[in-house]
Structures are given as structure tokens and as C-alpha cells.
Amino acid sequence: MHYDPQRLAPLVRSLRRGDRRPVTLVDDLCDRLDATEADVDALRSEPGRRERLRREATALAAREADPASRPPLFGVPVAIKDIIHVDGHTTEAGSSVPPSAITGPEATVVSRLREAGALHLGKARTTEFAYFDPPATCNPCDLDHTPGGSSSGSAAAVAAGSVPLAIGSQTIGSVVRPAAFCGIVGFKPSYGRIPLDGVIPFAPSVDHLGTFTADVAGAAHAASVLCDGWSPVDPGEQPVLGVVEGAYLEQATEAGRAGIDAAAAALDDAGYDVRRVDVFDDIEAINESHQALSAAEFALTHAEWHTEYGDRYAPETVELIEEGRQVGVDELSDARAARFDVRRRIGEVVASSDVDLLLSPGAPGPAPSGIDDTGDPIMNLPWTNAGVPALTVPAGEVDGLPLGLQVVAPFGADESLLAWGAGIETAVADVGSVS
Fold first, then answer.
1. Pick the catalytic residue: 150, 152, 169, 190?
2. Which Pfam families match (predicted)?
3. Long-range contacts of 51-54 (CB under 8 A, 24+ apart)
4. Which of 82, 109, 293, 329 qualifies as a cystine partner to 335, CB 3.0-4.6 A?
5. Using one digit for the tens of pLDDT, what is the confidence trace for 276-334?
6. 335: helix, coil or strand?
7. Marked catalytic residue, from 95, 162, 169, 174
């Protein structure tokens, strides 16, 4: 099954100029949901969704009648991962815990979307509390495969063409991996650039918010609205690219390694200077540290809720809580401190290798079959641990299932990553089938 994702940047231009009316777009996307949701199941059901959105779109158009002053996301519907609080909508977080126990004030990321003129399309389905217990969401590229997780619905909604922009979160690989599986663009900014208030935490030391769009231009437009202190840069000359090798890359499948080789070859053909670098010779220690940190902070986050509603948690989630309770205070402190060492080392490798960006697979390989397993986030883990910005762009396929190229920049270089990302996206767009 193939869908055409909606491209955010040209859509914004048509809405702000008045070539397309917000209420018309609402009807178009609701028609799209009517056609796709029975198969994809990306959003929580909402009786009266179309009528609500039509009212909000009509009111927005009346408030912003002058095209010259319309805000940057005027009339754009956005899907919001269901761990993020939205006024007027409960937060369920993919859980059976009563919404009244976990719903809170609206998140800053949602307030920024509203101020920018966006409309809330609906709550995107998520694994339970953004861990591994999956919803019934399917991959629009192949309904027999997972869309990834935990931002399952956010990725699937964009890939299905039901929404041009969706918000997700990443604590290990929950933006980059689903985007790679679904053949779209996922962007996770540097740690802290999108505020996390109003979001149910997983592990606050490594939680990030991120975006899903059809292309890099859309990701850049969304980032300019959502990220603190955004200052666009001129991409200038082509960046020097470093393909990450060694023990880290060995975690990928044969298909994942073939995919990164094919993407590197395409970039070389496009005139990029592509080099090979070894970044993580101690990747197992990084993986273990991140797992201990995530489990311990998750257990702390859920201490009261699990005491009250423990029988409503999925077994996998309970196992993580129990694992986290075994992490000692000193081990947790060390794991938190180790993040900054990994961040520093990434910057040192970039500088010493004379590269600007690092390349790796967006996931170990294509999306696994079935929807009971959201896939392994291991290829995303060290970058999330370090809090550096990461972008994934479609780069080839295996048996019709997309592969994603993960592009990473040093901490704080988000603007450069997205400025350069558009050229990289174009260079790898025709990689094709990877064997």
C-alpha cells in the first residue's frame, strides 16, 4: 500500500497566501483519515473531530484575515503524540491508567503550535508510556509491518498522508526509528531545544521532543517555530561526511549495513567528501549506561502511579520499573554524568576527523514484520544519550520496505544539520532497492 505524504512547506505557503483555505484542508484531511484509519489506526478516535476542526479553522481564518500577517503554521493540522498534554483533550499515553491521574496542563510545544496558527488534528497513538507495549498502528508502507515506536501514530499519520506535521518524543530511538521505518523525515533536536513541560516523562535526562514531516524543508520550517533560539544558517559548501564504522555499525543487520554503504556511494557520486570514522569503540558500555539511566528515571517517574494502578500496566512496562528500582544512586549519578562525556567525544571525533556530519543507519534494518514488536532502537541510542541533533531521511528500500539514513551533528548544530540535510536528502533519494 502506498500513500503520498503531505509536504509542509508548500502547504504553508498556499495557506498563508490564501490559495487554500484552512477549512478546506481540514475536510481533505478528514476525508483522508476516513480512507486510511481503518487500516493504519494512527490516531485515537475522536467523535466529532471534523466538526471541531471546521469550527477551529473557521475561527482561525476570521482572526487572521490578512495574508500579510498570518503566522508561520497558519491553518496547518498537527498530530500530537498522546503523552503530550493538549487542553480540551485527555492524555491516555497508550495506557489503562485513568486519564484523570495523568492528564496535566498543556505542553509548551502545543502552545507554540497554537501561537503559530496550527490546528490540533488529534492525539497520535503511542506505546504504553512511550515504552515497548505497542498500539494496533500499522506501517502505511506495508500494513503487515510495524511503524516503529514509541511514536507509532505520529510517524504513521504523516506517512499515510493524513497530516503534514506530527510531534513525537525520543528517549532512545522513538522519532528517528519510526521515521526510517515509514519512509519519512524525523528530526530530533539537541537536548533541551524544545521544552518538555506538559509531557509525561520517560527519563527526563534523555527525553527529547521531535518532529515528523514528509521532507527536510518541512522539518526546518517546524523547527523554526518549536526550537528555542532558532537562527537559520546558509548551508554554504557541501559538508564533509563521516560514515560511522566499528562496533557501533556492527549492531545493524546486513541490510542496514548495505543500506549505509549504498547511501554513502550515492553521496560520493553527488560530489560529497565521504570518509569512514570509528566513534564508539565502547558502544556496549554506552548502551548499558543509557539503559540503566532510562530504567531508573522511568521507575522514579512512575513510582506513585504504579503503586496506585500497578495492575493496569503491561508486563513489559512493569519489568522496566522493576529493573529501574535495582539501579543504585551512585550508578544513576554516573550514568547521568556519562552523557556529557559521550557528547564531548562526538565533538572531538568530528573535529579530529575534519568532518561536519556523521552518518549511520536510522534503524538496524527495515521494519520488522508484525505489529507486536516496534523494532530495536540501538542505532539511535548513543546520539540520544549525548543529546546531539539527529535527522533521518529516506535512503533506499529492502523488499519494498524503507531504509533511513541517520545524519547527526555536534551538540547545538541543529540549524546546520537541517540546512545541509536538504542536499543529503536529494542525493540519496534515488538509492532504490538495496540487496
1. 150
2. Amidase
3. 53/26, 53/77, 53/119, 53/121, 54/23, 54/26, 54/27
4. 293
5. 999 999 999 999 999 999 999 999 999 999 999 999 999 999 999 999 999 999 999 99
6. helix
7. 174
